[in-house]
Amino acid sequence: SVSAALREHLQRLALQDFPCGLGSWNESRFNAHAASRRGRLGLGTDRAGQEETIPPGEESPEVLLEMLRDPHSPWALLPGCSPQDQHLRELAVLTPEIVRDNNIFKVFRSLRIIDKGVEELDEGLLQLQQLEELILSANRVSRITSANLPRTLRVLELCCNAVADLQGLCAQPPPELQHLGLGHNRLGGPLRDKYLTVDFWPNLVSLDLSFNNLTDLLELVSQLSSLQKLRVLVLQGNPLALIPTYRGFLVDSLPKLSVLDDIHIGPDERCQFQGLARQPELMRSEARVVVAIGEIRGVPDPTAGQQLEVGSEAPVVTYSYSVTYEF
Fold this sequence. Notes:
Blueprint: H1 2-13, H2 32-41, H3 61-69, H4 83-94, E1 110-112, E2 133-135, E3 155-157, E4 179-181, E5 206-208, H5 217-224, E6 232-234, H6 246-253, E7 259-260, E8 263-264, H7 267-272
Parallel strand pairs: 1-2, 2-3, 3-4, 4-5, 5-6, 6-7
Antiparallel strand pairs: 7-8
Helix pairs in contact: 3-4
């Protein structure tokens, strides 16, 4: 689950171990009176500017932070960690109470769990009450339980998973979502359940459906046209993108779109395709694919003539091959 992957990651950050957290290296600065004062100052307040007397055997916040920030320090951030990870560790120095009683979950605004084998979006996500960005690319998510998504979410990225339908995601979608990334999944066929309409995504600005198996361009456009805030759309890699009039039809059908398949839509292009949306008869449900084979290795060349002596009765061996493509 996402919660299990998150807890494993937090454990790797060692937020309760020196120089983070609370211990003999800083305990005199965090008595009951100081804890009450910190509550009034607010979570994450930097006390580096306050004059304090550091008892023997303890370290100042500045020294502890330097241990985290120095790339040559034994306590430096591990490779592959994000700037947010560094921010969490520094918070654990300045306000050690943040790592107790799940208070750490209250400071998360962005969560990135990539290629960790995650299969389930569990209800533990609801602890992240301030979460705005959730990146779960390259995992094994096949079903999305939207009731477990924080309502504060603005970005949801699920690229390279195994999502085959939108029913679970659209049961209780985050109302403020602005970007939905579902590229390289298993969405297929015509989307007849109207899940990509303003009824579910009133604030959607960016949508990535690339490299799925979507085939019905007319039905898709009829849904997307209701998304009045949509500005960025990615559909490349779907069978429907092979239709000859694909780009022109989309450009004319979605006049508020600014970027299609990572290419900016300019005034000249809009003028060029003007009126194409009113000619759906041009949308053929077929496409021609030309495949050229550059080189084949490991098999005899059937075109190489055999050198036989004049009058030889040796048998002539012929070769033939076939190549099959499945769409």
